[in-house]
Amino acid sequence: MSALLPFHKSILEKIHDPATSELVLLARGLGLRRIVCKLMQIYDSPNNLVLLVNATQEEEAAIGEELGIMGCRNPGLRIVGFETGRKDRQDLYKKGGLVSITSQIFTVDMLTSDIPTHLITGIIVLHAERVTPTSAEAFIVRLYREKNKNGFLKAFSDQPEHITSGLSPLRTIMKELHLRTVHIYPRFHAEIKESLDRKTPDIVELHQDMTEAMSEIHHAIVQCMTTTLSELKRANTMLDLDDLTIDNAYFRSFDMIVRRMLDPVWHKVGPRTKQLVSDLATLRRLLTYLLTYDALAFHAYLETLIAANTTTESGASRQHQSPWMLTDAAHTIFTYAKRRCYVMNPVPKAAAQAEPVEVINLVDSEEEEAWAALDEMEAHARGEPSSNLNKGKGKAKETRKKWLPEGMEPVLEELPKWYLLADILHEIEEEMIRLNPLLTSHSPGSNTVLIMASSLHTCTLIKDFLATMDADAPRGSQGRQMMEDKLRLYLWWKGKLSERRAEGKGPIALPAGKKDDANGAQGARQGGGNDGISEALKRKDRERQERSMNRRRVRGGAPAAATSIRDSASSGALPEGEIKKEADEIAEFLSSQGVDVATQALIPDTQLFTMDDDFDAHYGLLAPAQTVLVRAYSDDSDDQVLQEIKPRFIVMYEPNLEFIRRIEVYRNSNPGLGVRVYFMMYKLSCEEGKYLTGLRREKESFERLIKERGSMLMPILEDRSTPAGEALIKTISSRIAGGRKEVSIEPARVIVDMREFRSSLPSLLHASGLLVLPVTLTVGDYILTPDICVERKSIPDLVSSFNSGRLYTQCELMSAHYKQPILLIEFEEHKSFSLEAVADVKSYAKSSKYPPKKKGDPRADNASSAAQSIQSKLVLLTLTFPRVRILWSSSPYATAEIFNDLKTNAAQPDPAKAVLVGAEEDPDAGAGVNSAAEELLRSLPGITAKNVKHVMNRVKSVRELCELTLAEVQEILGVEPGKACWDFIHRGERK
User: Fold this and answer.
1) CB atoms within 10 A of CB 436
2) Quick one: how far is CA 966 from the chain centroid?
3) CA 167 to CA 169: how far, in whole Å?
4) How far apart are CA 719 and CA 145, in angstroms?
5) Judging by DSSP bridges, how do beta strands 152-157 and 122-125 pair with one another?
6) Got the DSSP string for 594-608?
7) How far apart, in whole angstroms, are the C-alpha atoms of residue 524 and residue 223?
8) Contact, 793 vs 127, CB < 8 A?
9) For residues 444 and 460, what is the distance between their CA atoms, to the nearest angstrom?
C-alpha cells in the first residue's frame, strides 16, 4: 500500500466522520479503492459493525488483500456469500468488524432480523451510479433507515458518465440513498491538480500511421457506419435520435443507448430497423478488430460475417441481408482485407502439371539487386515497412513453403505497432545500459518493462510476436515467422470450412493458436444467433475472461457474427461464391498433401525437458532487466500492480485515460523514481477519436453534475412509519355476516420466496406499505392470502419455463394446494407491452440437430410465429388447468398495485403453513419408511420428487396403490400423471 497523496488525505478528512453520510464522486484512476480501504481501516474495530455492499468478487478479494497489507488482519474483511449458513452469519454479525455482503443476503437478513439493524455502525456502498428507485441498494437503505437513524452511509462512484438517467440523476441517487451531501472530485479539481502536477512522468507520445490498406478499410467502415446511422434516423423519424453520432458509436455503451431508445416501440419497428441496430454493433466491432487483430484473423472474421449473412442454417440462401454489405465501401473492406493477407494468381492447370522449364534471365542479377536496394531505401525514407517478398525469382522459388497452395503469394502485412514496439524495446534496452552505472541497490524501481494493452487477445498477440520476433529482420518483417504459422492455421481452417459445407454443417471459427484448436472451433453462428444474448451475460463473459488473466493463453477464436433478420433482397454484391471456390481449392490441395502435412499446423511446438538441461534456463528466476510483462487494462488492481513491480519503463500499447492517471498517482507516490511512459496511438483512427471523445465526455459529465449540485432541490426525508390507527383502518375486515365490522390487528403482509429477491418487486411491495416476509417456498413465488398463490414469470423466464416443462409442474402444484392459483406474466418497464417482442428472446427456439422436414416460407415473419407459439401454449395451459388465472402486468410497479388490490379485505397468510405446503409436513415421517419401496415408488411414471411424499401420505404401501382404481389414482396425482401411473401398473409398456 503506497503513501496517500495530499488530495487523498483531504478527501478522507471530509468524509471520515461517522456522524455524517455523503456521496463521493471521483474521476477514474485517481485511487478510489485506496480511499475506501483507508476509511475501512479507520472503522476497523470489534465494537463497530461496518458493512460493504455492492462489491464484486474481485473487488472483495483485492480490498481484503490491501486491508491485510495495511494491518487489518485480525480478523480483517470477512466475506458473506451464499454458502455461509444462517447461524454462521448471525455469529459473524455479533462479532462486529468489517463485513462484505451481497445485496440479496443483506436484504433478507434485515427482513428476518438476523442482523441487528439498530446496531449497525455504518454501510459503505460501492458503484453508487447503479442506484435506481428499483435497485436492491435503495431497498437496503430504506430498511436500514427504518430502524437505524444514527448510522452512517458512505457511497462511492468513479463513473460520472453513467449518472445520466432521468431529469435530475444526481438528485435521484441521493434521494434513494437518503443523502444530503455530495463531494465531486474531477481531475481538474484544484487540490488534485496541485497534487499530481508536482512530479509528472516522462511521457513519449508516438502517433503511428496506419498502412495504406488499413487506412482504406478504416475509412470504408466509418462510411458504412455513417450510412447505417443516417438510414436508422430516416426509418425512425418519430424518435429523437440526434444523440446518435459517429463519435458516440466508438463506445460499447452505444449499442445499449440505441436499444434503450427503441425499446418502447421495439414491437412496432420493422425488420429493417432491427437489422440496422445489429449492423451498428457489428461495424463498431470491426473498427476495433482492424486495429487489434492480425491481418489473417481480421480477414477470417470478415469471411464468417459473409457466410452468416448469405446462408441460413439449412444451407439455403438468405432472403434478408445486411444493407451495408451491399455497398461499394463494403467491397473495399473485403478486397483490402484479403490483399493484406495474400494474393491469388491464376495458375493454368496445364502449366501447373507440366515439367518446370529452365528460363534464361535476361536481366543482370546485379542490376536487379540494385533496383531492389533502391526500392527498399525509398520505402524506408517514406517510413513504410520494407518488403522482402520479391528479392529475386530464384530465391523466391527456394524459400517457397511446400504447404502453400499453387498461385498463392503470401503478403502477410504486419500491424505497424508491432515494429514500433520492437523499436521501443530496443530503445529501452539501450536506456537501461546507459542508466545502469548511475543506479545503486537503493535506487527505487525495477527494470521490468510493463506493456499495457486493452484486451487479453491483444496481450496474447503481443506475447506471440515478441516470442517469435526476428530482431535482425527489416521493419515490417520481424513477425514473419508468427504470421506464417497463422497463415498455415488459416489454410487448415479454410479446408475445414469446405469439408463442413460438403457435410451440410455450419462454419467454425478460426482457432486462436496451435494449442487452441479444440477450444477455438466453437462455430461462428449463422443468422440471428447473437441477437438475444443480454448485455448482462456478455458482461459476465468478459469478467470471466478477466479472471483467467494469468493463464497466458486466450481461449476461443473469432467472435460470432451478430446478425439478425435481413430485409434486403439482393445478394449479388458479396464475394460468397469466390470464398467457397477458394476454400474448395485449398481443401483439395490439403487433401493432396496428405494428413500429416494438413494437420501439422495444429501440432504444438513442445520441447521435452530432461535432467541434462540447465534447470535455471527453464525454471529459474528471470532478472528484471530481461522481463517484459504484458497485461490487459483492469480496474483499481492496476494500482497494486504498479506498486508491486515498480517499473521505470511503461509501454501503453493502446491509449487509456484512467491508466495515465494511475501512472501520475504512482509517480507522485514514489519520490525519487523516474518513470518513462511510451504512449502509442494510431494517427487519425477510431482509437484516437475514442480517446479524445472519452476525455470530453467525462469532463462534460462532471460539469453537468457540478451544475446540478448547485441548483438541486434537496429532498425532505420523511419518516415512513405509519401511525397505528391508520394501519388498523387498512386491515379492517368487512366480510362478516350481518355487516358487522371486526378490527384485525394483523398488519398487511405478503410471503415472498427467497429466490425472488433478485428482482425489484419485493422492494416495491415494501415501499407500498406491505410487510414482506422472506421464506423458502416449495409452491409459488408469492403468497398473498391463505387462498391466493402467485407464480411470477418475466418474459424470458416464461419462454424457458415453457421449453423445459417446468411451468406445467408449477401450475400443477399450485392447483393442488391453493384455491386461487395465479400465473403473473410481468413485462419490463420502458419496454413494449406486447408478446411480439418474444421473437428476440434467444432461449425461445429449442435447438434441434435435425433440420425440419418441411421448409416453411422463408419470408414468414419470425416475430409473429413466435408470439403465436407462446399464445398457443398459454391456451393449452389454461385448458389443462382451468383454475389457474393469468394476470398481465406492464411493469413491477403495476404488479405492486395488483397485489395490493388482491389483498383488499382478505385474510393474512401464515408463513409457517406456507413453508410446509408442498414439502414434508412431518420432519420425522421418514424415520420408519421402507427406502426400497420409496425408491420403487419414485420410478413409476407420474410420480416425481415433489409429489412422492404426498402419495406416501395417501397410500400405505405400493400394493395398496396397485389396487386403486383409475379414478382414485387420478384423484391423488392429477388427471394426466394419474393415467400414466395407472396404465403403467396395469398394462405395462404394451399398447
Assistant:
1) 10
2) 52
3) 6
4) 9
5) parallel
6) -HHHHHGGGS-----
7) 26
8) no
9) 30
Query: What residues have CB less than 8 Å from 935, skipping those under 6 apart?
Result: none
DSSP per-residue string spanning 158-173:
S-GGGTT-SSSHHHHH
| CB-side neighbour CA atoms (13 Å) of 743 | 7
Distance CA 627, CA 822 (A): 65
Please work out, in degrees rounded to the nearest 5, the angle formed at the alpha carbon of residue 487 by the alpha carbons of 481 and 488: 95
Nearest-angstrom CA–CA distance, 345 and 325:
26
Per-residue pLDDT of 576-615, as tens digits, reads 566 666 666 666 666 665 444 444 544 444 344 444 445 5
As to burial, measured by CB atoms within 10 angstroms (0-12 exposed, 13-18 middle, 19+ buried), residue 664 is: buried
508, 524 Cβ separation under 8 angstroms: yes
Task: Single out the residue of 178, 187, 169 nearest to residue 138, CA to CA.
Answer: 178
d(CA 655, CA 631): 14
Q: Which of 160, 131, 151, 132 is nearest to 54 (CA)?
A: 131
Alpha-carbon gap, residue 196 to 698, rounded angstroms: 18
C-alpha 640/C-alpha 66 separation (Å) is 9
E strand or H helix at 298: helix 295-310
pLDDT band at 731 (very low <50, low <70, confident <90, very high): very low
Give the C-alpha separation, 755 to 741, whole Å: 38
* Residue keyed to cell 477464436: 557
Phi and psi at residue 825, to the nearest 5°:
-105, 115
| Phi/psi at 97 (5° precision) | 100, -155
Q: Which of 166, 82, 203 is nearest to 650 (CA)?
A: 203
Number of other CB atoms surrounding residue 294 within 10 Å = 24
Higher pLDDT, 657 or 236: 657
* Count of residues in the chain: 991
Beta strands 182-185 and 22-26, pairing class: parallel
Give the three-class secondary structure for 913. Answer: helix
Does residue 398 have a pLDDT over 60?
no
User: By percentage, how much of the chain surpasses pLDDT 70?
Assistant: 70
In this structure, the strands spanning 788-794 and 782-783 are antiparallel
Residue pair 79/105 in contact by the 8 Å Cβ criterion: no
CA max distance for the chain: 121
Mean pLDDT (whole number) for 874-892: 90
In degrees, to the nearest 5, what angle opens at C-alpha 160 toward C-alphas 655 and 291? 25
> Which amino acid belongs to residue 642?
L
List beta partners, residue 156: 24
**pTM, entire model:** 0.74
Residue 574 to residues 280, 323, 326, 549: CA-CA distances in angstroms? 19, 11, 7, 38
Residues pairing with 203 in the sheet: 677
For residue 75, cis peptide bond before it (omega within 30 degrees of 0): yes
DSSP of 490-545: HHHHHHHHHHHHHTTPPP-PPPSSGGGHHHH------SSTTTT--HHHHHHHHHHH
* Other CB atoms within 10 Å distance of the CB of residue 857: 7
964 CB neighbour count, 10 Å cutoff: 18
At 631 the three-state DSSP class reads: strand
Could you identify the residue written with the cell 419518516? 719
DSSP annotation of 836 reads G
Phi, psi at residue 121, to the nearest 5°? -70, -40
From residue 45, alpha-carbon distances to 77, 267, 301 in Å are: 11, 55, 56
From the list 911, 908, 792, 756, the residue with the least C-alpha distance to 108 is: 756
Task: Give the pLDDT of residue 974.
Answer: 85
Rounded Cα gap, residues 674 and 446, in angstroms: 10
Angle between helices 271-292 and 456-468 (to 10 degrees): 30
Q: Which helix (H) or strand (E) holds 334?
A: helix 328-339
On whether the CB atoms of residues 958 and 937 are closer than 8 A, the answer is yes
pLDDT of residue 591: 61
